[in-house]
Design brief:
By secondary structure, this protein is mostly helical. It is about 70% helix and about 0% strand. The structure holds heme-as (HAS).
Length: about 550
């Protein structure tokens, strides 16, 4: 790999791993506070800590890692020109300026609004302007990725695009369309309101625009993990991609169904017609299908590879998997975690059952299994080869072993913490709350044991974070010089050719927009028409004229 390219990709990784450390420390403070045995010193507010935790892990760490990974994948499969690299640096610095602005306002206690920044909680304008810059930077990065693919396609007329480049394109297109929603909310609702140009803010409009973005956001995190599962893990286990077409189809389905489902986060909210909530619940069940296809495809890859190596019996093929290779083990644990994590998601989405779990700490348990285990362990699994690949070093057997210990520590810590969160949630324990005995009620006394368990699990997880950051530092600067492979699997030899319609981007985008218009147009008109008297949907600039 060329040095200037590696420098670009690694810059994203540095921010990601610094975020992991800071965000993880905030998580540790939170579980301590919630155990009831610790109070934050120097008058620091619980919600300030919770905001740093959510913003820095949910938005900063993920976005930087993903964009760095996207660039690495695109550079490897379709190449990057000098000019594209320069624009990519512009994207990086725009994001950094935005991140610093946001971070400073949170640290000064001017933006304790959590990562969802629900109105009417109001932050300092710099918080929203910073977020807008991060989004703009991420768009520029996406435009560079599209340009990279377009240049490649021009040079390879009639050929199908490399699978990983196709996947990056889907993820960036989805991200662009989805983040338009939050960009509108930030630009024409939150910024004018926080600057005092608008007197009011329409809460339901802002929440609807947020969740139009918020659900595809979770697939923006998930799809890079799926890229590794489909196209990289088969190579690591000595196998091949089960089906290139199936992989592409599942990504196309994610593009279609990730966005028109935001209401499943608003099922308890008044002001949205139940029929449209129901329709979006049905669409949510559709977005489960590509994950089930992914599970099927992974089992097929594991089994075919195992049988080819001569392992027999119903589960004999399990034996061939490289359990001692952390590049496999960490993502594999991520896959396992996604079985209960995904099932929990289906429970959340099931309209009536949502009323049992909504706003309870069950939901926090759900997303610590999905994003903080499935996605994070896969990102760690990627880092074990990507970082040394970029820095010209090697993953030594010792670091591999440490990585295995890290994965096990993470699994133990998360099982305890997330398990306790799930159970406490079913007992009615609220999310987004600091410690309270709620006036000594009997119900709240049932929660304390689970909160203690979360503190134990959270402490183990923090040890996992320290280990991971240590391994990252080693791989980035100190591991022996050498060559670490960028593993990309090939298709099965007898694979049917991938149909050419997969390259029909206009069709995919048109269907996506049609589904969004179907799911959102009428409910949005309803929301605006049914807003309480005197409440305008957009106070600025429209409401004033
Ligand atoms: Fe979720 C809330 C529904 C997936 C993240 N979710 C959240 C929040 C976050 C989040 C952060 O419907 C909180 C937001 C907030 O702050 O308020 N979620 C779903 C559904 C899915 C789902 C239906 N969520 C995710 C993923 C996330 C994520 C992925 C992050 C990366 N979620 C909800 C709902 C809420 C929600 C409601 C709102 C709750 C409320 O009331 O507030 C689906 O995508 C899940 C489908 C997944 C599967 C699993 C497939 C399994 C696979 C692994 C195979 C394993 C193998 C290995 C092959 C069906 C692919 C096995 C090998 C062996 C040898 C055994």
């Amino acid at each position: 790999i060329q040095k200037p390219e590696a420098k670009l990709y690694m810059s994203f990784m540095y921010v990601a791993f610094i975020s992991l450390l800071i965000g993880g420390l905030m998580g540790l403070l939170q579980v301590f506070v919630r155990s009831g045995k610790f109070t934050l010193p120097w008058g620091i507010d619980y919600y300030q800590v919770l905001t740093v935790h959510g913003v820095i892990l949910g938005l900063v760490l993920t976005t930087y890692f993903i964009i760095g990974f996207h660039f690495s994948v695109m550079g490897k499969t379709v190449g990057i020109s000098e000019k594209q690299r320069k624009v990519a640096w512009f994207a990086f610095w725009t994001m950094v300026v935005g991140t610093v602005m946001t971070a400073v306002t949170i640290l000064l206690g001017e933006a304790s609004v959590l990562y969802t920044f629900y109105a009417p909680l109001r932050a300092h304008p710099a918080f929203y302007i910073g977020l807008a810059l991060v989004i703009i930077g991420s768009w520029v990065a996406g435009f560079v990725n599209w340009h990279q693919l377009a240049v490649w396609k021009k040079k390879h007329p009639g050929e199908k695009s490399p699978l990983l480049a196709f996947m990056v394109t889907i993820n960036t297109v989805m991200w662009f369309i989805a983040s338009l929603g939050v960009a509108i909310a930030v630009l024409i609702q939150f910024i004018p309101w926080s600057l005092g140009w608008a007197e009011t803010i329409n809460v339901l409009v802002s929440r609807t625009l947020f969740w139009y973005f918020g659900h595809p956001l979770v697939y923006f995190w998930l799809l890079p993990a799926y890229m590794a599962w489909y196209a990289i893990i088969p190579k690591i286990i000595g196998g091949k991609i089960f089906s290139d077409s199936l992989a592409r189809m599942s990504f196309v389905l994610f593009l279609f169904f990730s966005i028109p489902v935001g209401f499943h986060h608003q099922l308890t909210e008044p002001g949205i017609d139940p029929t449209w909530k129901f329709i979006q619940v049905v669409l949510t069940m559709m977005v489960v299908i590509p994950s089930l296809m992914t599970a099927f495809s992974l089992f097929a890859t594991f089994e075919i590879t195992g049988r080819r190596k001569g392992f027999k019996g119903l589960f004999g093929w399990l034996k061939h998997l490289p359990w001692k290779d952390v590049r496999f083990l960490a993502p594999f644990i991520g896959m396992l975690a996604f079985i209960p994590g995904g099932a929990g998601g289906i429970i959340n989405a099931s309209h009536q059952m949502n009323s049992l779990v909504h706003n309870t700490i069950w939901v926090t348990g759900h997303f610590h299994l999905t994003v903080a285990t499935t996605v994070m362990l896969t990102f760690f699994g990627i880092s074990y080869w990507l970082v040394p690949h970029l820095t010209g070093r090697t993953l030594t057997p010792k670091l591999n072993k440490l990585g295995i210990i890290q994965s096990i520590v993470w699994t133990i810590g998360m099982s305890i913490m997330s398990g306790a969160m799930h159970i406490q949630g079913l007992l009615g324990g609220p999310r987004r709350s600091s410690f309270s005995e709620y006036g000594g009620t009997e119900q709240a006394s049932e929660w304390i044991g689970y909160q203690m368990a979360q503190a134990v699990g959270g402490t183990i997880l923090f040890i996992g974070i320290i280990l991971m950051v240590y391994i990252f530092v080693k791989l980035a600067w100190f591991a022996p010089k050498g060559h670490e492979e960028f593993p990309i699997a090939e298709e099965e030899d007898d694979a049917e050719p991938t149909p050419s319609y997969f390259e029909n981007w206009k069709l995919w985008i048109a269907i996506t927009i049609a589904l969004i218009l179907f799911a959102y147009t009428i409910p949005f008109i309803d929301i605006i028409q049914n807003s309480p008297a005197g409440s305008v949907p957009f106070d600025w600039p429209i409401g004033r004229y």
